[in-house]
Amino acid sequence: MPTDSLPRQLARTRRFTLGAPAHPAVSADGRTVLFLRSRAGDDPLSCLWALDTVTGRERLLVDPAALDDSGGELPEAERIRRERARVLTTGITAYATDASGRLAVFALGGALRLADTSDGTVRTVPTATAGYDPRLDPTGRWIAYAGDGALRVVGTDGGDDRELAAPEQEEVTYGIADHVAAESMYRTRGHWWSPDGAALLVARVDTGALARLHLADPAEPQRRPRVIRYPLAGSANADVSLWLLGLDGSRTEVRWDRAGYEYLTAAGWDAHGPYAAVQSRDQRTVRTLAIAPDGATSVLAEQRDERWVELVPGVPVRTAGGALVDSADRGDTRHLTVDGTPVTPAGLQLRAVLGTDGDEVLFTATGEPTETHLWLYHPATGPRRLSDGPGLHTGLRRAGTLVLTTRASGAPAGRTTVRREGGAPLPVTSYAQPPVLTDRSEPLRLGPRDLRAALFLPTGHRPGDGPLPVLLDPYGGPALQKVTTGGAWWTLVSQWFADQGFAVLAVDGRGTPGRGPRWDKEVFADKATPALADQVEGLHETARLRPGLLDLGKVAIRGWSYGGYLAALAVLRRPDVFHAAVAGAAPTDQRLYDTHWQERFLGHPDEHPERYDACSLIGDAPGLRRPLLLVHGLADDNVLPVHALRLSAALLAAGRPHEVLPLGGTTHTPSDETVAENLHHHQLDFLRRSLGLG
């Protein structure tokens, strides 16, 4: 397959996710590992599989295509959940098990299905309404699910379907996560079972006070606009409360200072009772609360930070012995803590807590910013690293069975192995396609800030060839690292652009994850200046290290989401350095993004309007002197299309020529094969024209 087919391959493989094992779960005895995987690297239909960790044999448990009825139309709330989770597959995209791991439940088109993993039988569980996000109780007797705004339960035998909580009005839902929780807090759930299966902890979300936005696709004028309840920065948040709902019909509200702590960042229910974590609107305080049976709460722990408390995926959680597992920023290190005491060394940055097993804690952490490793903490022995070699490592561990997934150069889909204590590692089969080209990037460390960067040159490039036109290809923001040893799909995109005749440079500047709290928070009050300065420094430092390689008279920049914002920012504010930009899904007006994300960095817009003005691009429109292509999906409910339209209107009003590429029916993550493929070619054509490359 020729090199220039990479955009096609990315589209057909959904960025190499198809055919790769995903979402593993380990049974209570450690003998069975469940996982999702499609049958081929270009097959989007995800099936449920089981691996016997003793024999190494894999079994297909559920093939959605073989079921008599794949269910009805996808419920709107489930579509939104998948968008928040950036789901790119079809079929079984999520599942949940009971405590033993013998039963697994999932939803297909609103219909609930129950699989017995021991004998492979699958049956439909009849429900009163279309359901989504089903959760088995630990004992395997009941399924809780959300449907039509209500939280319902049904027996695994299909009987006694009933409503535990019904929405009091149209704007209320029970049992699902609100927008900012799913988009910015790592909390994608809204209901949690008690260990005995007799009650649930349930989130109630009232979006009545949120702004009503209308999202219409001009390419589909016959469709009504979608009405979106969106928490714009500075405006009201959803009113989120917690309730204890018993199967006996009891209903108890959980009480805490919701006016002072309006964000519900995490929740759960373990052998020591229900618990929750709540955060103040200014995000400088997070409290972990124990919840009593009468709904009263007590503070288990509190974190404070003068800028913001960084939320870490997977915390708080408790060990079997009741020790509270959390995080704490001390100096320039984000530590894992157990009962308030840091248990990881200085310089090792906690990334996520993946779970507890007994008194052990499984977590990921970063020493070298370009790598993430899997670690296990035990109170008797301290932290121990479980993964080796460069790459991004993650996994899970239960009953002595370890599932390790490694993403490294040349394997964007990752490699998954299973190891039982005392046994040899078992590879989990992957049908993911190998990339049609090879990432040939050179890692760099640049300037006094030791910026991590990757330089991509055309395949076959030889010393002395050049100078080459330059394409900066960053993300550059707090949500994502682009410069890692993890072999991600975006490194292949950078290599593809390099193979079209560019020197491509990716730089992770201040604010990108993995380098500790001080680095993270250098973008506080100003998301623009430090990030742009680091891109310029990275460019000039690379030119100094590689004299004659870069043509600094032909420098372009491209990006998506925050990377798109950074690209537009570059040509607007540094036209002396950047000569063309492609800005995809760029948040151009900081007041038009959500509360939790935006106020974390810029504060409340009523209190700090100057920060929002300084970081927005609308006011910079009259200064455009370089070619700029704005790309935006018209169905994007994360970074709304109004961002591109308002910047375009301001540019037009100022008489500044520019180009706009609207993508009909496209969300924040382009998934249509034709759109995803040709988008790369369109950008390439624009960059060549804009830099005078023919």
Describe the structure.
This protein has 694 residues and is α+β, with helices and mostly antiparallel strands. The protein is built from eleven helices and 44 strands. The strands form ten sheets. It has an eight-stranded mixed beta sheet with strand order 37-38-40-39-41-42-43-44. Strands 1, 2, 3, 4 and 5 form a five-stranded mixed beta sheet that branches. Strands 14, 15, 16, 19 and 20 form a five-stranded antiparallel beta sheet that branches. Strand 7 (103-108) and strand 8 (111-116) form a beta hairpin. The two termini are 25 Å apart. The model has no long low-confidence stretch (mean pLDDT 95).
Our count of helices gives 11
Query: Any idea what the CATH architecture of the domain at 442-690 is?
Result: 3-Layer(aba) Sandwich
Find the structural class using helix and strand composition: alpha+beta
Judging from the principal axes of the Cα atoms, what is the shape? globular
Distance between the termini: 25 Å
Give the % helix. Answer: 10-25%
Tally of DSSP β-strands: 44
Low-pLDDT residue intervals, each spanning 5 or more residues? none
CATH class of the domain at 442-690: Alpha Beta
Provide the gyration radius in Å: 25 Å
Strand content: 35-45%
Largest sheet: 8 strands, mixed
Under CATH, the topology of the domain at 442-690 can be stated as: Rossmann fold
CATH homologous superfamily placement of the domain at 442-690: Alpha/Beta hydrolase fold, catalytic domain
**Overall mean pLDDT score?**
95
**Order of strands side by side in the largest beta sheet?**
37-38-40-39-41-42-43-44
